[in-house]
Amino acid sequence: MQEQSDEALMARVAAGDEAAFRILARRHVPRAIALARRVLRNSAEAEDVAQDAMLRVWTNAPRWRPIASFRTWLTRIVVNLCIDRQRRVSWLGIEAAGDVADPAPDAAARRETSDTARLIDEAIAELPVRQRTAIVLTYREGMSNAQTAEVLESSVAAVETLLVRAKQTLRAKLGPLFDKS
């Protein structure tokens, strides 16, 4: 069953096959977490988004139709959940902060140690959510403009416009960084 396509596994999941669901989860949860982390800039919320996305895969499996690839469908779910979370404003009291977090960097933070990468990530994080999502899907996830348009439920031309605007903003913010070298 390990060698079956995602679409074949989804057909089995639709029939209630938990083993097929576990295989899909092993294949796609790490990428879903990484995508959510890039869009949200929050590791804890990224894991929640990935869990919510997989729950939606399980509950919506009987209604799923292989119009798009499973990966594209799952990416759309993750992106929509991220956008929904960013629209929500949550206000918590200081007592909700709990214990002080461990100051040691997590695995993702250790991987992004260079100052340049940090500055680029910060500039991307400041982009409007749709521009940021287009940049992440296209350049970090390696999706084509057509796939990104499908995930964002927009046209390819709209994605290209988002990418142009995002690149212009990044160039304006990061230009001095690259002009020094």
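Above is the first protein from milestone M3; the second protein from the same milestone is given next.
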Amino acid sequence: MNAIALPLTVADIVAEYEAKESAMAAEIKALEDAFTRLDHATTVQGAYVERVAQRPYLHIDTLRKNLLKSGWRAVYDRLQIASIASAKDKKLFDQALANPPPLSIETAKATFGDYLIRPRFHILRGLAEAFTALDPAYKSHSRVRIGVKGLPKRVVLNNWGGFSSTYGRDRFQDMANALAAFRRQPSVEWCEMLDIDDQHKLGSDAVMNGRTLSRYRSGLGEEKYYAPNRGLTIRKFGNGNAHVYFDKDALHAVNRALAEFYGEVLPDAEPEGVKPSASTAVSKDLQFYWTSPEVAERALAFAGIPDLRQWDRYRTSRPEPMKVLEPSCGDGRILDMLRTYGHAGYGIEYHPGRAAEAKAKGHSVLSANFLDCEPMPFEAVVMNPPFYGRHYAKHVRHALRFVQPGGVLVAILPASARYDHGELEGDWEDLPVASFAEAGTNVPTTMLKIRKPA
């Protein structure tokens, strides 16, 4: 009786990799010995006539690198990361395969563990990344929460392309796959994409509403593939662009996914016309979503604040450290980055516990309500103000009074400040999806830069 084949675990894959890696030198030696035996088998008394087989040039480092890449790909496939990870993460993994780290249980856990712990978070993040890249409306927390009618029923894809460009097709496939992951459908097959092009050649709209398609698999020939109902209609135009329309169910799925991901309890989602009590407003104004090092670096770069550690590599004269204010500094995350960059950072924080944490790090922090502070001149202000309602605008306007002529202000804000409210003007730069996930919120965020005239 045949034994039941149990599914491989990551430990099994790593063990196989380690065994083959340790045996690599012996495998090369065995191949060289086989060629030597072949030479002997095709000659008499060693009398050379002509080459009967080309000996391959094998470098053990090249073979080991190929084995390492294969091991990582096997772990990726075994854990079904492709059905969880966002299109952005998949591309990053493919890039990382060019020079992968050593494969072990520990490195596999560090790389893929979070996908298994929080699969739904990554599926929703992938959908948010795909759709916010298509239309700014999907970055608006307030538009998403009001329901399906608040979202666009179509998106425009530039450069659907043919042989010269696949930019539009790639973005469509990322979007369709993200939606499929949320709806528990299989990823879009290449034969579905071919079917779209075939319908366009016939001059009709391509409707991805579930049908049987033919596809060819290497060694298997033609087989039938039943495409699930994607709820999408693609209309291609002569200028190379394509419009993608969503049916009711698809649009509802997008809405539910974004609403779940962004959340419904953050203060920028207050019901229209409902005025919270004073105590509620104060408590929400003191909300704290700390700034990650990645966001802090982006904010300093947007403000044009240089990293003085790197300056000597490119310049002969090092600029003077800047005097920078972080209002509502919390426990001093932006101040941390300013100090790392070599600048003089100052903070203001009302919450006594967080102010004490910032001071314990050695930062200069004033314990006070920022909105009650009298202005003093700074070369730059970099801030992550409370997001409550539109109260952030009051913080930004007050912070502008602290910027000296010729100075700059950068504020990290909810995306609704850019796409819905319109109370502040300046230069905008959106942050990546889920930039504040580690701090406890997935609300879409952006940055505003205002430069004060000299």
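Note on the second protein: The two ends are 86 Å apart (CA to CA).
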